[in-house]
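Researcher: Let's try something more involved. This one mixes different molecule types, so please make sure each is placed in the same coordinate frame as the others.
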Amino acid sequence: MDKLEQKIRDEGRVLSDTVIKVDSFLNHQIDPVLMKQIGDEFANRFADAGVTKVLTLESSGIAPAQMTGLTLGVPAIFARKRKSLTLNDHLYSTTVHSFTKNQSNEISVSKDYLSSDDTVLILDDFLANGQAALGLMNIAQQAGASLAGVGIVIEKGFQDGGKLLREQGIRVESLAIIDSLADQKITFHKEGASV
Ligand code: 5GP
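Model: All components are placed in one shared frame. Result:
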């Protein structure tokens, strides 16, 4: 997605050879116009997949998931990282190791919002080692839901997550794929090249 790649080039800050910060439009301040375009793009790519729910993880997945749900005309659910007083044991839960925070979180979704009648599109802001996506897939599996695929705003192609998911036959659609962040330089994957 050209607009997204341009935005990453213009505003992304490379923190190391493995981490890029995009706080100005995705992870802190949100660009709603770009989010709407991102939602439209995911909705278009998964238009024929029979999606009934978009599933993400709080907090950075919420904006693209909500916009995708808006265009598809289905609800967006975010897994919570903390059990709140109003979330009780009527939950699907699993543990996810966070790449950026290097800590494990239990994530949960209420059984009220996912069931075996659902076809789930999993969405997230970044794909690194695939732990967040695998955790969300585990939640969908506990519900007995079908999986339409995984939509990612920014995939880091030099980490293992994309390979791990695609090798399992999962449909992964990434709107931007970064092949390298070495030497403070952002190199994108060439469109059409294999991933
Ligand atoms: P994974 O679970 O695939 O290892 O990592 C994906 C999660 O880690 C995403 O939900 C995202 O929040 C975070 N993440 C991974 N890499 C980056 C990065 O380079 N920049 C930012 N801002 N977040 C990242």
